[in-house]
């Protein structure tokens, strides 16, 4: 994972939110795939900072999280 002040903005991305989100502005993150990166942002702060991961880093994180429930 690269630590930067904020991941630089790219072209318009299609952001996805978990189907487990209650739709009432709860604590959720949104994820979008871009060229060579997976981006994550706070659903309550859409113009705010984004984290950027390589696809391999994101895959490792998702696998780790799924295994630990």
How would you characterize this protein structure?
This protein is α+β, with helices and mostly antiparallel strands and 69 residues long. The protein has one domain (14-67). Helices cover 20% and strands 26% of the residues. The chain contains 1 helix and 4 strands; from the N terminus they run ββββα. A 4-stranded antiparallel beta sheet has the order 1-2-3-4. A hairpin with a 2-residue loop joins strand 2 (29-34) and strand 3. It is flat. It starts with 15 loop residues before the first strand and ends with a helix.
Structural class: alpha+beta
Biggest sheet features: 4 strands, antiparallel
Radius of gyration: 12 Å
Number of helices: 1
Outline type: flat
Gap from first CA to last CA: 22 Å
- Total number of distinct structural domains: 1
- Strand segment tally: 4
Query: What is the residue-mean pLDDT, rounded to a whole number?
Result: 83
Regions with pLDDT < 50 over 5+ consecutive residues? none
The neighbouring-strand order within the major sheet is 1-2-3-4
The proportion of residues in beta strands is 25-35%
What is the helix content? 10-25%
Task: List its traits.
single chain; 69 residues; alpha+beta; 4-stranded antiparallel β-sheet; 1 helix; 20% helix; flat
State the gist of this model.
With 69 residues, the protein is α+β, with helices and mostly antiparallel strands. The chain has 1 helix and 4 strands; from the N terminus they run ββββα. The two termini are 22 Å apart.
């Amino acid at each position: 994972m690269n630590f930067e002040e904020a991941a630089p903005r790219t072209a318009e991305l299609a952001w996805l939110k978990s189907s487990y989100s209650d739709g009432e502005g709860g604590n959720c993150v949104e994820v979008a795939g871009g060229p060579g990166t997976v981006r994550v942002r706070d659903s309550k702060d859409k113009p705010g900072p984004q984290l950027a991961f390589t696809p391999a880093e994101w895959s490792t994180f998702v696998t780790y999280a799924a295994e630990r429930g």
